[in-house]
């Protein structure tokens, strides 16, 4: 006979509603296939298994995100609209390809625009990004995933995001070869496991932070 754990059932009924948005920093405009978008989408799929609603995927290069470190860089700047989607989400999935051992220029543009969040606080002195969780996704046919992860996690934490344990999933193809992640017949076991862990930990952490926000700092 199958029995229900009353504690687990109670916790499920109290689970806060969460949503996740993926910002994909591929250099390829849509509708070109993107390995970064594929792996980011797999993270979103894994998050849905934890009751997280998918707010969608934004391929940043499809939008005119102006250079700068302000919330709005003026006429034609697409960042305010993207930011509105980001601020409505509880979990950010930030995905980038690897170029010359580094995150893409598009990804760096996103980080530069997020710098403006350092000036955006609530009435209790907390950054508006406090309580939001970030997951990192990296793909490429060269080394660099660990360095990129370190750079992105540091930057995201600097502007107020919280990083879960094992909050990254990545795939590195063989150096100097042309097979991309989206060319694979199946997802490598270790990448799949990392995706599952990142999604589970992100959903858990986001739920905790939504239920019990950070203390006031002002």
UniProtKB/TrEMBL annotation:
Residues 21-165 form the NADPH-dependent FMN reductase-like domain. InterPro entries: Flavoprotein-like_sf, FMN_Rdtase-like_dom. It comes from the Bacteria. One of its GO terms (molecular function) is oxidoreductase activity. This is NAD(P)H-dependent oxidoreductase. It comes from Nakamurella flava. The lineage of its organism: Bacteria, Bacillati, Actinomycetota, Actinomycetes, Nakamurellales.
């Amino acid at each position: 006979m199958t029995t229900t754990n009353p504690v687990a059932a109670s916790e499920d009924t109290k689970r806060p509603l969460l949503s996740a948005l993926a910002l994909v920093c591929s250099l390829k405009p849509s509708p070109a296939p993107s390995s970064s978008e594929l792996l980011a989408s797999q993270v979103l799929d894994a998050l849905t298994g934890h009751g997280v609603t998918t707010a969608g995927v934004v391929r940043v290069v499809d939008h005119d995100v102006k250079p700068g470190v302000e919330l709005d860089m003026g006429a034609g700047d697409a960042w305010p609209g993207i930011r509105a989607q980001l601020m409505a989400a509880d979990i950010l999935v930030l995905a980038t390809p690897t170029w010359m051992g580094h995150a893409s220029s598009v990804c760096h543009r996103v980080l530069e625009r997020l710098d403006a969040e350092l000036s955006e606080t609530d009435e209790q002195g907390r950054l508006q990004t406090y309580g939001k969780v970030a997951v990192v996704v990296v793909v490429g046919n060269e080394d660099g995933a660990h360095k990129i992860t370190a750079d992105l996690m540091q930057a995201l934490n600097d502007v107020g995001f919280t990083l879960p344990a094992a909050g990254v999933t990545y795939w590195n193809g063989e150096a100097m070869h042309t097979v991309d992640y989206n060319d694979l017949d199946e997802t490598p076991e270790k990448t799949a496991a990392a995706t599952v862990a990142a999604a589970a930990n992100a959903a858990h952490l986001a739920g905790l932070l939504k239920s019990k926000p950070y203390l006031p700092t002002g």
